[in-house]
Amino acid sequence: MIHQKRRKELLSRLDDNALVIVCTNAELQRNADCTFPFRPDSSFWYLTGFTEPDAIAVFSKKNYSIFLRPKDKTKEIWNGKRLGAEAAPSTLLADNAYSIELFADQLDTLIDDETVLYYDNNSTNSLHEDIASADGIKPLLPHLSEMRLVKDAKEMENMQFSADLAVNAHVQAMTNVKPGMFEYEIAALFDAEFKRNNSTHAYTPIVAGGANACVLHYIENNEVLKDGDLLLIDAGCETEGYASDITRTFPVNGRFSEAQKQIYSIVLDAQKGAINCLKPGEKVNKAHDTACSIISNGLIGLGIINDDLPLNEFYMHNTGHWLGLDVHDCGQYKLNDEHRHFEAGMIMTVEPGIYIRKNDKIDPMYWNIGIRIEDDVLITESGNKVLTQSLVKEIDDIENLMRK
Ligand SMILES: [Mn+2]
User: Fold this and answer.
1) Model-level pTM?
2) Strands 64-68 and 96-99: what pairing?
C-alpha cells in the first residue's frame, strides 16, 4: 500500500499526462558464472516494493504496468522463485503485468501524443535503449528525490533500526579490539552482527588502523592493529534497504595519548557544533561552515595550521550528506543556486574529521593521526534527533567502555 501511495504522490507532482518509467538493475557478474548478491535500484524499490532483478515499472494516473522476468521452471529450480506475470498484479497492486521481453512492443501502446515521459537513464538494465529513443523525455529524479529526501514514519523506523544495528556492531569493535589483531578481524564483527539480523553492509566498511585512517576510502582492511595507534571505523548497515553510516575513532589499546586527545577533542567539538546547526529553517551548509571554523581554530591553536599548511591539508571532505535508501542519498543541496533549508523528516550525516599525514613541518607526535566522528541525524519539528546517539563518543566514555 505504501508503494501505491508513493506512486500517486509522485504523479501529483508531475504533468497531468505524465508516464513514469522506472527500471531496476540487472544482476551483475562477479566472475565466471557467479554474480554479486543482488540489490534492487533504490528508486524502483521505493516505488514498487519489488526486489527481483530485470524489471520495469510503467505508471500514469490511468494505469500501472509492471514488466518482469517470466516464470521458468528450470531457472527457478537453480536460482530461486520468480513472481511472474500471472501473480504480479495482485502482489504488486498493478493493473497489468507482462514478461520483460515484451517491453519494447508494449511501450508503444502505453505512449500517445499527449504523453509526457519521465525517465532517468541510470540503470544497468539493457532495455533503456528502447526508452531513450522516445522523444521529449523529462528527468524524473528531481521530483522523486524531493520525495525520498523527506522520510515517512515507516522509513524513520527502518532508519532507526539500521542505526541501532550499526551502533551494536561499533560497540563490539570497541570492546573486542586488542593490539596485534588484524583490521579484518574487527571487520568480521560487523559482518556477523549485520548478517545475524538479516541485514548487510550499506557500503564497504573502512577499518583503518594508524596511518591507514589518513586514506579516506581505505577498504583493504588487512593490516595489523598496533599498540599506541588509533583505529578509525566507518561502517554502516543496510536493513530493508535503509542505510546507517557511522564513524568512530578510538585507541587500539583503550587509552588515548595526549596528542590523540588534543586532535580528537577538536573533531568532537566540530561535530557537536555542526549537529546543532541541523534544525528546520537552517541552511544546509551551515553545519560544514561551523565544523570548518572550529577545526581551523583548533589546529591554529596547536600550531598545525599556518600560512604553508591550510585547513584543506587536514580536512578535505564535506561535513555531511543525505542518508536514506542510498548511503549518499538523492536530494538537492541547493535550490535555484541557493543552499536550501532543512525540513523535518530529512536525515543527514555529520562527519567532520582531521587527517595528519607525516610532515616534517609538524611535530611528529601528531603524525598519522586520522580521526573522524560521524552520526546520523534526523531533522525534527523542534530541532533534531541523533539516531546514533547511543554510541559513545566522549573520550572518557570510550575509555570506560573499552576498559570493561
Ligand atoms: Mn558518511
Assistant:
1) 0.95
2) parallel
